[in-house]
Structures are given as C-alpha cells and as structure tokens.
C-alpha cells in the first residue's frame, strides 16, 4: 500500500469515526437535551449545537490524537511500573 492510499484510508476512517460519534450525540440532543434547555433553539439552533459538537470533536481529536504513538511508546506506557524495594515498616 502506498503512502497516498494509506493517507486516504486514514482520512476515511477519521470521517467514519466523526459520523459514528456525532450520530449518538445528535439523537441524545434531539430526543432529550433540546427539551431541557430554558431557551428553545428551534431547528436551526439544534443543528448548530450538533455541528458545534462535530467541529469541536474534530478539532480536539486532532489535538489529542495518538496516531503518532509508536508501538514502543505504547508498550512503555502500558507496562506495569517497575517493582521497587519497599521501605521497612516502622
């Protein structure tokens, strides 16, 4: 697989992830939270909230993404802490 194909596949997966996370939020917002807010938004406001969630998820996902983590770094983080000598009890 070439680098271009890899990048395209990665972008497709990111878009699918964004959609699959936004759909449950949209359902929760539309079926529950939109009725709980004090000031009713109307359909434009509801779409604005769902869009805001998607945009923030995308931007924060780029910031907090771990796709550049190497397997060695991941193994180091997930490994149990080294055993140390316990100090004698007093």
Largest sheet: none
Shape: flat
Number of helices, counting only DSSP H or I runs of 4 residues or more: 3
What's the gyration radius in Å? 22 Å
N-to-C SSE string, H for helix and E for strand = HHH
Q: Which strand-content bin applies to the residues? A: under 5%
Write the layout of secondary structure elements.
Layout: H1 3-36, H2 42-63, H3 71-78
Structure description:
This protein has 90 residues and is mostly helical. The protein is 71% helix and 0% strand. The protein is built from three helices and no strands. Helix 1 crosses helix 2. The longest helix has 34 residues. The radius of gyration is 22 Å and the shape is flat. It starts with a helix and ends in a 12-residue tail after the last helix. The model has no long low-confidence stretch (mean pLDDT 81).
Write a short abstract of this structure.
The chain has 90 residues and is an all-alpha fold.
Characteristic key phrases:
71% helix, mainly alpha, 3 helices, 90 residues
């Amino acid at each position: 697989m070439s680098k271009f194909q890899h990048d395209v596949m990665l972008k497709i997966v990111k878009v699918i992830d964004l959609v699959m996370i936004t759909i449950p939020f949209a359902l929760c917002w539309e079926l529950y939270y939109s009725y709980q807010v004090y000031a009713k938004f109307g359909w434009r406001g509801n779409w604005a909230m769902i869009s805001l969630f998607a945009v923030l998820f995308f931007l924060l996902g780029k910031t907090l993404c771990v796709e550049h983590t190497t397997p060695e770094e991941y193994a180091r983080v997930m490994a149990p802490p080294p055993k140390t000598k316990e100090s004698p009890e007093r």
